Fold each of these.
Amino acid sequence: MSTFRTTLTRVGPGALSGLLAACTALAVAVLTAALVRPAAAPVTVVGGAVVDRTPAAVKDFAIRTFGEDDKVALRLGILVLLGLFAVALGVLARWYPGAATAGVLLFGLVGAAAALSRPDSAGPEDVLPSAAGAGAGALALHVLAGRARLLGSPGPRGGGRSRREFLTAAAATAAAAATAGAMGQVLTGQRGRGAAASRAALALPAPASPAPVLASGVQLDVPGISAFTTPVRDFYRVDTALSVPRLDAAAWRLRLHGKGVARPRTYTLDELLARPLIERDITLTCVSNEVGGPYLGTARWLGVPLAALLREAGVRAPSQGGRADQLVARSVDGMTLGSPVEDVMDGRAAMLAVGMNGEPLPFRHGFPVRMLVPGLYGYVSACKWITDIELTTFDAYDPYWVKRAWARRAPVKTQSRIDTPKPFARPAAGPVTVAGVAWAQGRGISRVEVRIDDGPWQDATLAAAAGVDTWRQWSYRWQAAAGGHTITVRATDGTGQVQAEQRARTIPDGASGWHSVFVTVPETPARPASGPVRQHHPFAPSTEQKLKGSN
Ligand SMILES: Nc1nc2c(c(=O)[nH]1)N[C@H]1C(S)=C(S)[C@@H](COP(=O)(O)O)O[C@H]1N2
Ligand SMILES: [Mo]
């Protein structure tokens, strides 16, 4: 036998034992979590702990690299790492079974510790999934490694019989793991179905104050420009939730309490829906949006005016003598976001939103209720799956992102983006429509200018404004000449402030700088005097085809 094959027969069964033990552990953990609390599944809690401890710069890198798939990437990373350790432990078990078992239990300990450290931990029972998983994994490894050890050993149990015994045990373990895993999935799915049913059954009341009718002129007829109202399926998603919380509307509660709350109370969804609702078009922006980035969108939100709710509870804005200057919203998954009480109560359309573009909030956008404060970045205002509002002070409490080097206060910066042409596009010489969006929630957009290369700033044509809290479309007709060109845009807000040129990173309070796009306008081939060129060059693609192909 070659040394490679010898190594493989020595190591292979151990590695397989390790992997099967890990699968068993995970499956049993998922099943236990489904019975106790799905959010306490080991990969979820470990992933959550990793997210919370990831430095802001790495997180920014992950968002940039994986976009909204960052959570899938993280889960996959954890599973691959776990798989590698499982193989190592399985191989180790051949010689040091005690150490291997201890290794498996150590993983259980890590999972249990992660579960307890989660801000939404419900208590000691959160340890159960990791504990049960580790127990099952250790047992599986013990049985499989025991059989594996006999493989190739001399004596009556060596040879074919021991191989059969090992393979039977491996197959039985795999089947048991698959069954437990499938049962866990089904049970978790059933819980989710209760939530889905509660969402499907939710009939949104008509708003007491409907959104102003959108002028048709808010939407320019330019191919490639963002839709004024972002369809729900295209709306960006940014949160730390490894699995989207699926809450049952009937069981949902919102607690309102804290400094200066004379009448603290807890609301059900029906109580909120019985109040007069407002409906507004609002652009939501993420502080992690780079200049020119995709993390913003506009929706028609339906919700309970937050200021009225607070006033009813006895809360006063700091300018009216209120004692609390920070409103901390907490979600079911333990996320905390802090907004200035002054902003929430200054008359803007701050709300507890229940509807988005005419339907109940999708689960990924915070069902059943999320907060929105126009003019503030999402991380200081837009708490999804909200369950608790506490009035406090900025001195007394730092919410989640502030603990991680982001600013305490973060009003949206005036920004503009070129949607079309796309970077490195190759538009034909002649008239080219440059178009995009500009936003300065709370202040509105009064002017947008476009510059070609180092030329003078030229006024873009503004689409109709839908109000100060939404983005505004703009377009500019450019006579493009052959060559490489840099198109730059800048906006001026409703107060007359011109968008800052100074480049700033997203951390700590949002990116700034002008968005520019580089395009190449190809040389136009000299037109033949008469007759199509194609006749002379039967296989040459037309100029038009070439341009399409390179776009
Ligand atoms: N519970 C919870 N709410 C949250 C977040 C979060 O991580 N958890 N992220 C916030 C951030 S950073 C932004 S930009 C908005 C994004 O809202 P969306 O995902 O509905 O677009 O939600 C905010 N609300
Ligand atoms: Mo964000």
Amino acid sequence: MEVKVWFCMCIFLNWILLASSYSRKLLYSVHNAIMEFDTDTHNVTVLVEHGGDYVYAMDYDYKNRFIYFPRYNTRDIVRFPYSSKNITLQTVIQSLSYPIGIAVDSTNDHLYWVDYNTHRLSRCSLNGSNRTVLSTLYHPIVIRVDVKNR
Ligand SMILES: *[C@@H]1O[C@H](CO)[C@@H](O)[C@H](O)[C@H]1NC(C)=O
Ligand SMILES: *[C@@H]1O[C@H](CO)[C@@H](O)[C@H](O)[C@H]1NC(C)=O
Ligand SMILES: *[C@@H]1O[C@H](CO)[C@@H](O)[C@H](O)[C@H]1NC(C)=O
Ligand SMILES: *[C@@H]1O[C@H](CO)[C@@H](O)[C@H](O)[C@H]1NC(C)=O
């Protein structure tokens, strides 16, 4: 299935949306799961259960077709293939300091995130290797990659 995902984030904590314009699916997180809403059929399905954590962000790796999201209390970033019949969470990176915002740069194989506790902006490869702190910001919560202008 051709999946094109665009991203939209609401300020309401724990209510985050990802939308796919081709397959017309809207992804959002609730307290224990990531949900998929079919905008054509209005069907709602539980896509993946993430264990009662807080999920404040999601982003999509267009190249390798994974959804990435941080788990605030578990302090890690996980991913799962989308869309796929076999949805298994894979841990990308652990031992973070309350990750709250993420941004995927598929073109350059980079995953960016901000930690709520340390106020740090960090980066690693999409497989979690080569973790690097880039900067310290003032209470960062949300980050995006400007793909067009790099
Ligand atoms: C809605 O989802 C359920 C469970 O996944 C499925 O059995 C049903 O066929 C779906 N309905 C439509 C209209 O897609
Ligand atoms: C589902 O995905 C996991 C992780 O990628 C893999 O280990 C497992 O073998 C897969 N299961 C099936 C039935 O394909
Ligand atoms: C992880 O990604 C980096 C950068 O693309 C690559 O150099 C490295 O071999 C990868 N490691 C694994 C275990 O796949
Ligand atoms: C790892 O990150 C450093 C700093 O961002 C960069 O200079 C280096 O090229 C990266 N190495 C790999 C294998 O991606």
Amino acid sequence: MKTHYGIYGGQYVAETLMAPLRELEAAYEAAKKDVAFAREFKGILHDYVGRESPITYAKRLSEHLGGAMILLKREDLNHTGAHKVNNTIGQALLARRMGKKRLIAETGAGMHGVATATVAALFGMPCEVYMGAIDVERQAPNVERMKMLGATVHAVPEGSATLKDAMNEALRDWVTNCADTFYVIGTVAGPAPYPEMVRDFQSVIGVEARRQCLEKYGRLPDEAIACVGGGSNAMGLFAGFLDDPEVKLVGVEAGGKGVASGEHAASINGGRLGVLHGAKTMLLQTDDGNILDTYSVSAGLDYPGVGPEHCHLHDIGRAEYTVIDDDEAIAAFDAHCRFEGIIPALESSHALAEAIKRAPKLGRDKILLVNLSGRGDKDMENVMRYKASSANSSQV
Ligand SMILES: *Cc1c(COP(=O)(O)O)cnc(C)c1O
């Protein structure tokens, strides 16, 4: 089992959490070797999520930019509208296999909470979601969705009352109730085996995309581009191409108001080495090690850390990590709506913005594969508010 990625990863947890982590490791190792588990996972992805998701040639946008061909991996077409459900289905199946009766999760923007509540309903399991009290207020529609799906939402008032505090509470619940409870983590972060396990469940994105690209265009893409919050949609895409050194891997972090402003969520480009949620990784922290609050126009990208495997891929030069700021992401969102008739998630708009920068510099024979991690219906209000406030500020 993989516990470390270079100097990153590991299991930096209290002694009391070692036993449930060992149990999880053993169960996951056994499940990985079990063809029946893989078959059931694949079946649910097909029948319930609607996989496989297609790749779409963004023809008008590519022609407008006048360079490389932009291909979109359409995770926005999944049931629930994003990639997160691939992972929650995998973990819920594992929970059932382990005889766990109850699912718990942490959530920031609420999307992972909704994805977990969704599979809890599908599998008939009770579900409790921890969410910072401030996030509960900011993300009211997702709180309602979780409740509608039958989950209980706990508002966490401690600390800064955001994602990192919710994660601490979920860990506390898990320690207390691990005999019957499975902790569903939403990204390639947390202590081993979560980063590997979440990557494996999301690797369906990259494995499908690689095959689809070969079938349809007779060759691999030149670059595979994805946004990075905690890094699960990006690791899922990259997993399909790690053994193809000719495919450049590009992760895009949220630059918010610019890395220099301090208001961003770019853990690799603007963070430092530390320990967060049981893993050694790059994260946003003060000089004395307090976790900083993150900022991005896209709520789903504002996790203060990043998956350990990304830090390693960065160190060894296998993947490149860039930054896209709020304005660039909103411009890409607009372009994508008007040229392609697809409203992208603001998270995914960061990856699109990177492709829009790169495409004109490349020949028409090049292929940029972008992971469209989710659809943007959830972001409408946010986009309108952002535009209204930037219109106001440009008047002064
Ligand atoms: C949550 C989310 C992300 C960010 O999470 P990762 O783990 O980095 O993939 C990206 N896109 C969408 C649509 C999301 O909901």
Amino acid sequence: MRESNPFLEEHVRLSRRYFMKLGVAGLAATNALTHWAIPARGEGKLFPNEAEKAERFGSYLTPDKLFGDVSRGEPVPHELPDEKKQEVGMTRDSWKLEVIPDPDHPVRLRNPMTKENGNAIDFPQLMALAEKHAVRFPKMMTCLNLGCPLGMGIWEGIPLREVVWMAEPREDLRRVFYYGYHNDDEKQIFRSSLPVGRVLEDYFGLPPVILCYKFNGEWLSSERGGPVRVVVPEHYGFKSVKWLSHLVLTNYPHSNDTYAEQGNDVDSPMKTFAATLSAPRQIKAGTELALTGFAQCGIGGLSKVQVSVEPADYQRPKDDPYLTTAPWVDMEILPPPENWGGEFADGKLPMPMLGFDSETGKPLKWPMRLCAAHWAGVHPALAPGKYTFRCRAIDEYGNAQPLPRPLRKSGSITPEQFTLEVT
Ligand SMILES: Nc1nc2c(c(=O)[nH]1)N[C@H]1C(S)=C(S)[C@@H](COP(=O)(O)O)O[C@H]1N2
Ligand SMILES: [Mo]
């Protein structure tokens, strides 16, 4: 058994309070969370096991060192020695951002910003812009190709549009391409893109697309993409390019994201889904199931989390591929945490924060879009046998999520499902 883990305390505290209110024997289940053995990090960051997941979402915000890392490159840029980082612009002292027209699909710029002309943007200039324009907001980082989100963070930066306007675009600007340091090897480039409209305006009350330089109140670490990365609030991780070095303003009307090359859906925003953190795989007959978990509140919002338990040999009706007739039981979405975790002193968030009331420091809406929500609940006791356990979310519009997609590579598209044995 390992020592109690401070990162798990908030999830345990909230779910314990929930179970106490119900007077259920769920305490044992939530206590068990704190005694999971946490394996060495590494590969596990991409495919976390139960214990790592519990740790990643044990407090509302994920500390940097527990965050999942998806970085390409030979070598991976954040593992370069410090001297090399300094040489290639991967430190705050040496960082430069060029803003240039696309040579193949030009845009007229009055003020292209390049190292050659001596007017590329540097970190002190970015900080000067931050004094006027800095924003912060909470967002979950999720890789389109991985089931488990990489973590939940507070991202701080300046709206990308401020820098686009500085280049004084005059004509033909349709998209913004951007990429980061890639070992000066064309083949290693990791590029993403956005329509200019999304850069210049914030649709549907979304936070702006930012040039991000702080994560959970600290300078953005090299692993998270520091000194500066793009963060696109509503998108999967691949739009949030790390070690940003170039903005390319283009008249090309299509996305040319590196991620499109592997058959991914590169334009659909983050989906809503729910999953368990603590759920038995084996249980005694007559014992209620004490369950806890997290949800990703995607672009469709989140109104409910539900679980269902059906006999494993049950022949599901052929005309119900989306499981509408499964015996769904509502779970309870837990309230905002008192201690937000992450690296914030006292677990308090700095204000102002987009989506929060500055006076009270509380979120204006709960659960928050594009963020995590934690849940807990109890499923009635079962007779001995083998069962199929499922978990799903219901979005703000009443749709069960994730809704099916005819392309597997479009984010989490299958509800969580596992076998439960009752003895
Ligand atoms: N320059 C660069 N940016 C990148 C990547 C990369 O390999 N290189 N990976 C992307 C992908 S696919 C994801 S899911 C996110 C992961 O962000 P994180 O490592 O901070 O969790 O970063 C994105 N930004
Ligand atoms: Mo990703």
